[in-house]
Design goal:
Length: 263
């Protein structure tokens, strides 16, 4: 690990100012960033620790949405009665992230800001057409995820919360890597006011929506409809864990399981 300076921010404004001045990185749960630093894959000169900012944590229902603070831990979402009553698919997703240590340290905001191509939270954000709230603006889910580890966030911009609209139905299913528990393929399906949305993680360089599945489930929101979709493998990941064709098959299978989970 390279040498770095650590700044402990007490407010969002203080954190943003420190990031703008130093050009450093925000530290949320550290589950990805610290590992990358240990391997010398990341070399931020300054880390701005967000853990002491109380305003970034918490879960509440606001109108027809569940708002989750960026520094809320995965385990807190998984155990939340408020989330379970409104969007149980989010509890199930959070409960399936990593292991107990990761769930008790990792955060919603850190996950989506990092935008790992196999992370779970980006699928929920995109699948539910959520709004990412930062210290500067509100960003629609469709505009937030830009590519491999890339988002719409500016260098001094901090995710403060995510607002998830209440769906009619929603479900998530993933085929996990047995070692990391990241998604080899994960699919989030939702019946929303604007129609059916299907978000896929783990299969490409970034989370994406599947139009063939959205079209099929828009006509018939059933396990059979999802399973019958044949997807093109072009552009999908291929590695020692699975070929692009295998992942294309898994997307339809996981979509059918997500529909079943949605009830």
């Amino acid at each position: 690990m390279y040498a770095f300076e650590l700044t402990r921010a007490k407010s969002v404004a203080e954190a943003a100012a420190a990031l703008a001045k130093s050009g450093g990185r925000a530290l949320a749960g550290g589950q990805s960033l610290i590992g990358a630093m240990k391997l010398r894959l990341a070399q931020p000169g300054t880390l701005v620790d967000l853990s002491g900012i109380a305003e970034l944590r918490g879960i509440k229902k606001e109108g027809d949405a569940i708002v989750i603070g960026a520094m809320t831990r995965h385990a807190e979402v998984a155990a939340s009665a408020t989330v379970k009553a409104a969007i149980p698919a989010l509890c199930a997703l959070a409960q399936g992230i990593g292991d107990r240590q990761v769930r008790n340290m990792g955060t919603l905001g850190g996950s989506i800001a990092n935008n790992d191509p196999a992370a779970d939270w980006p699928a929920a954000v995109l699948g539910l057409d959520a709004t990412v709230v930062t210290n500067k603006r509100k960003i629609a889910a469709d505009d937030f995820f830009k590519g491999l580890y890339e988002t719409a966030l500016a260098g001094d911009e901090i995710v403060t919360a995510v607002s998830f609209p209440l769906p009619k139905k929603a479900g998530y299913a993933k085929f996990p890597n047995p070692a990391s528990r990241f998604a080899l393929v994960g699919v989030f399906v939702a019946q929303t006011g604007g129609g059916v949305r299907v978000a896929v993680t783990g299969a490409s360089s970034s989370v994406f929506r599947s139009k063939p599945l959205e079209d099929a489930l828009g006509k018939s929101f059933t396990v059979e409809a999802a399973r019958a979709v044949k997807l093109d493998a072009k552009g999908l990941n291929g590695d020692l864990h699975g070929s692009p064709e295998y992942r294309a098959h898994l997307i339809a299978v996981m979509a059918s399981r997500a529909v079943a989970a949605a009830g």
